[in-house]
Amino acid sequence: MATGDTTDARRWEYTTYAPKGERCSACLRPIRSLERVHRAATPGPPGPAAAVYRHTACPAEHG
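The structure assignment produced for this chain is given below.
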């Protein structure tokens, strides 16, 4: 059973809209205004986790 970033539903918290200036964590393309994205939190240095965003249908996931 595959459990990578694209198949593990536990990785992504929910679908939302990213703040202005964010980039997709997979393809690194800018996220447009009002474009739906997946949101997740990544552990960072000591302190709060950082939010990352990925297109709901990211081109990087489909080759």
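Interim note for the steering committee: Residues 1-7 have pLDDT under 50 and may be disordered. The chain is about 0% helix and 25% strand.
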